[in-house]
Amino acid sequence: MYGTVARMLVKPGMVSQFQEWMRQEEARSVPGYKTSYTYQMDSDASTMFVAIVFESREVYVANAQSPQMDARYHELLALLEEPPEWHDGQIIYPQG
Q1: Extents of the domains making up the chain
Q2: Does this model's pTM top 0.85?
Q3: β-pair partners for 47
Q4: Is the pLDDT of residue 88 over 90?
Protein backbone atom coordinates (compact mmCIF):
# COMPACT_ATOMS: atom_id res chain seq x y z
CA MET A 1 0.00 0.00 0.00
CA TYR A 2 1.04 3.58 -0.60
CA GLY A 3 -0.16 6.99 0.48
CA THR A 4 0.47 10.42 1.81
CA VAL A 5 0.25 12.37 5.02
CA ALA A 6 -0.48 16.04 4.54
CA ARG A 7 -0.46 19.01 6.88
CA MET A 8 -3.11 21.57 5.95
CA LEU A 9 -3.84 24.96 7.49
CA VAL A 10 -7.50 25.84 6.91
CA LYS A 11 -8.50 29.49 6.51
CA PRO A 12 -10.45 31.05 9.40
CA GLY A 13 -14.14 30.21 9.21
CA MET A 14 -13.62 27.52 6.54
CA VAL A 15 -13.42 24.34 8.65
CA SER A 16 -16.95 23.20 7.80
CA GLN A 17 -16.32 23.83 4.07
CA PHE A 18 -13.08 21.86 4.39
CA GLN A 19 -14.95 18.98 6.02
CA GLU A 20 -17.50 19.02 3.20
CA TRP A 21 -14.69 19.01 0.62
CA MET A 22 -13.19 15.96 2.32
CA ARG A 23 -16.61 14.18 2.38
CA GLN A 24 -17.05 14.84 -1.34
CA GLU A 25 -13.53 13.65 -2.08
CA GLU A 26 -14.06 10.41 -0.18
CA ALA A 27 -17.34 9.80 -2.05
CA ARG A 28 -15.61 9.98 -5.45
CA SER A 29 -14.98 6.66 -7.13
CA VAL A 30 -11.20 6.65 -7.44
CA PRO A 31 -9.55 3.42 -8.59
CA GLY A 32 -7.24 2.00 -5.95
CA TYR A 33 -8.33 4.37 -3.16
CA LYS A 34 -8.59 2.59 0.19
CA THR A 35 -9.33 5.11 2.96
CA SER A 36 -8.41 8.41 4.53
CA TYR A 37 -8.26 9.90 8.00
CA THR A 38 -8.42 13.58 8.90
CA TYR A 39 -7.08 14.77 12.23
CA GLN A 40 -7.99 18.20 13.60
CA MET A 41 -5.32 19.31 16.06
CA ASP A 42 -6.31 20.04 19.65
CA SER A 43 -3.68 22.76 19.82
CA ASP A 44 -5.01 24.60 16.73
CA ALA A 45 -8.42 23.72 15.25
CA SER A 46 -7.40 25.15 11.86
CA THR A 47 -4.50 22.68 11.50
CA MET A 48 -5.41 19.36 9.88
CA PHE A 49 -3.34 16.29 9.19
CA VAL A 50 -4.78 14.05 6.48
CA ALA A 51 -3.61 10.47 5.88
CA ILE A 52 -4.69 8.97 2.54
CA VAL A 53 -4.20 5.32 1.55
CA PHE A 54 -4.08 3.77 -1.94
CA GLU A 55 -3.47 0.18 -2.94
CA SER A 56 -0.22 1.06 -4.74
CA ARG A 57 2.12 3.88 -5.67
CA GLU A 58 1.06 3.56 -9.29
CA VAL A 59 -2.63 4.24 -8.61
CA TYR A 60 -1.72 7.03 -6.18
CA VAL A 61 0.39 8.77 -8.84
CA ALA A 62 -2.26 8.20 -11.53
CA ASN A 63 -4.85 9.88 -9.31
CA ALA A 64 -2.53 12.75 -8.39
CA GLN A 65 -1.81 13.42 -12.07
CA SER A 66 -5.42 13.20 -13.28
CA PRO A 67 -7.24 16.31 -14.54
CA GLN A 68 -10.09 15.56 -12.10
CA MET A 69 -7.75 15.62 -9.11
CA ASP A 70 -6.08 18.79 -10.38
CA ALA A 71 -9.47 20.54 -10.47
CA ARG A 72 -10.34 19.23 -6.98
CA TYR A 73 -6.92 20.32 -5.69
CA HIS A 74 -7.55 23.90 -6.84
CA GLU A 75 -10.89 23.84 -5.00
CA LEU A 76 -9.02 22.69 -1.89
CA LEU A 77 -6.43 25.46 -2.19
CA ALA A 78 -9.21 28.06 -1.93
CA LEU A 79 -9.94 26.74 1.59
CA LEU A 80 -6.33 26.79 2.81
CA GLU A 81 -3.93 29.47 4.05
CA GLU A 82 -1.09 27.88 2.07
CA PRO A 83 -0.53 24.82 -0.11
CA PRO A 84 -0.53 21.51 1.79
CA GLU A 85 2.71 20.01 3.01
CA TRP A 86 2.80 16.50 1.48
CA HIS A 87 4.74 13.47 2.75
CA ASP A 88 4.35 10.52 0.37
CA GLY A 89 5.52 7.00 1.09
CA GLN A 90 5.14 3.26 1.16
CA ILE A 91 2.94 1.97 4.00
CA ILE A 92 4.98 -0.68 5.77
CA TYR A 93 2.69 -1.35 8.75
CA PRO A 94 0.17 -2.72 8.99
CA GLN A 95 0.70 -5.02 6.04
CA GLY A 96 -2.64 -5.19 4.42
Answers
A1: 2-85
A2: yes
A3: 9
A4: yes
